[in-house]
Write the structure tokens for this entry.
Amino acid sequence: MSSNAPAAFNRRALINWFLGTSMGALVLSNTNQVEAGQVNDPQLLDKGYKIVHFGADPVILVKAADNDFRAFSATCTHLDCIVGYQKEQTRIYCNCHGGTYDLQGRNVAGPPPRPLTPYKVNLVAKGSDPSLIVVSKA
């Protein structure tokens, strides 16, 4: 019995580790919504956008106008580069190969073959604090 104890313990530790990491990955992949900050977030005010993590997926949150926020997958549909926002041109842009998207997420120039996946944006008021931006699956 003592000769099997270390092997059984190692198998049990391996199974526990595997189940623990699998459960963590499952939780990350099943994210339904994420708090992206407040409407007066300095990064949103300065750059006009920020990248937030929706589980393991990057999402671009764009401030299109006062209290008009839009969110899309931040992964370019061409070669999976992370997109950014060009505030002066009011467009979502991929620096890798010049892909351009409008503020509805539609691919309008360059090589991207399809639009960005949209996400829903809700503003949640919390007392006298500025509204909280909540991004969820569309």
